[in-house]
Amino acid sequence: MGNAYYAYMNNSFKRKVTSPIIEYFGRRKAARVFSKPPIIIGGCGRSGTTLLLSILSAHPEVHILPWESRIFAQWRKAKPAEKSRGLEYLPNRPDRLYRNFLAHSIPGRVNRWCEKTPSNILYLPQIMAYFNNRVKFIHLVRDGRDVMTSIHPDDPKSYWVSPERWVRDTQAGLDFENHPSVLTIKYEDLMTDHQQSLKAICEFTDLDFCEEIQNWHQHATLRKNQAWFDRLKKPHTNSIRKWEKPEHAERLKTILSDSDVMGLLEKLGYL
């Protein structure tokens, strides 16, 4: 058998041995450091979730996971011995969360953590059950026409999000729109009414609307990410209505011919 197989088996064995230890000490540290509910971000890809994570990274009370850990986007059925909390599903790799806690020195003002993976939006029922609703989930929504004509630095020759994905992901979040632990924010509002949107986010998450968050661009610790073509920029409207550019004409025809897309655009007030 090849080296890749032995490497995989070796890493799998190491995880089985080390993960319980990491979880034990990680949970103990989390209990000491984090007194307030975590903040989890989700939404269809290319909707501004990375930007929001960068904004929250500026707040002195928030510890962010700076990459997409997919902790809450991969679940497994709970084993009989694990069902004491009445949970049917558990995160597949919670050790990724606790590894992060143990690997970082967390300042004294920090009282909650924040994780962002776009596909978290598809697992809201599991997330709410796992945290017993003691979580703050922020759903980023963006005009589907801009989402579906957006490209990604990892694949600049093709469109990143299909009409089916935008409808599926966005509707999954809207199904929880009235849940007290879920806040729906439009990307466009975050760009055009920036301070008001930040106030709404701080009020929802019980964060102080402090100088660091008001001037987040100066204080953000997340300043570079593969989702961006460049380093972090101040809020701007250049990415709004990009779908109107002539180079997207054929793509736009496909988008506007989808009845599900059109219905959701109208529901969200984009038409």
What brief labels describe this structure?
two-stranded antiparallel sheet; 9 strands; about 270 residues; globular; five-stranded parallel β-sheet; alpha/beta; about 15% strand; disordered N terminus; Rossmann fold
Molecular structure report:
- The protein is of the alpha/beta class and 271 residues long.
- It has a single domain (3-267), classed as P-loop containing nucleotide triphosphate hydrolases (Rossmann fold), CATH 3.40.50.300.
- The protein is built from 12 helices and 9 strands.
- It has helices at 3-33, 49-57, 95-103, 124-130, 144-148, 163-174, 187-192, 194-205, 211-214, 216-219, 249-256, 259-267; strands spanning 39-42, 62-64, 75-77, 89-91, 112-116, 136-141, 151-152, 155-159, 182-186.
- It has a 5-stranded parallel beta sheet, sandwiched between helices. Strands 3-4 form a two-stranded antiparallel ribbon.
- The protein is globular and about 55 Å long.
Task: Describe this structure in a few short sentences.
With 271 residues, this protein is of the alpha/beta class. It has one domain: P-loop containing nucleotide triphosphate hydrolases (Rossmann fold, 3-Layer(aba) Sandwich), CATH 3.40.50.
Provide the CATH top-level class: Alpha Beta
The helix fraction, in percent, is 40-55%
Order of helices and strands: HEHEEEHEHEHEEHEHHHHHH
Structural class, by secondary structure, is alpha/beta
Write the layout of secondary structure elements.
Elements: H1 3-33, E1 39-42, H2 49-57, E2 62-64, E3 75-77, E4 89-91, H3 95-103, E5 112-116, H4 124-130, E6 136-141, H5 144-148, E7 151-152, E8 155-159, H6 163-174, E9 182-186, H7 187-192, H8 194-205, H9 211-214, H10 216-219, H11 249-256, H12 259-267
Parallel strand pairs: 1-5, 1-6, 2-5, 6-9
Antiparallel strand pairs: 3-4, 7-8
